[in-house]
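Recall that a protein's primary structure is simply its ordered list of amino acids. Everything else, from secondary elements to tertiary packing, is in principle encoded there. The following example makes that idea concrete.
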Amino acid sequence: MSIAVLISGLITGLLLGIFGSGGSIVTTPALLYLLDVDAKSAIAMSLGIVAVTATITALQHWRWGNVNLKITAVFGVFGVIGTYAGALLGVITPTVIQLTIFALVMYAAAYKMLKPKHKSAGAAAVTDRVDSTGDELQYTHIAVHGIAVGILTGIVGVGGGFLIVPALVLLSGLAMKQAVGTSLSIVALKSFAGFAGYAGVVDINYALMAGFTSIAIVGSVIGSLMSKRLPSRLLQRGFGLFLVFVASYILYKSVL
């Protein structure tokens, strides 16, 4: 197993464990530029790697009581539909368009990570109120968001956790730790659906996937434990700057 696989797999797992997102954003560029995998194969393999890794990490969060199964079911079902459709679309989408969208998604994720957070007392009150009353969850909005994020997942091979986490906080009123755990369960479902859409259509190196995934799982377990101790804001800023760098590199290498 090469050093590139070890490093990129570990980073993928750490990001999933700490943030409930970010795995595919690291995995796809790593497969593309460090391991010289074809673009469409890299997108497909990234979905498979994140699917397995997110499943293991979600189970860990579930044991801690941080996974809302009802929201996972609603968001996940509609997300799976959108992801499978997006994957079928991604197979016929020109690679340059996929990579451009991917880079733009990374910029959007970086903005979310770097944007200052302003939490008001009113927002906290809403969160507490919605957490205690499941009937007030806005399932229609959650379903629509699930389809939209799912389509994006299928086309560019990202789990969409960086979009799911804020959606769960704003639409469902979940506390941040529950949003991260629930996001992982949703990401796992959608990534499996996306991988199914690509499997059999593009070439997939299963041996490389297995090695990458095994390291990512180790990283995700470590990341979950770190999320309890490390200052999340500092980690988010560093991740945001990293995303800006990688997105710019993708545009430079593949588009410009």
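Residues 120-137 have pLDDT under 50 and may be disordered. The chain has one domain: 3-255.
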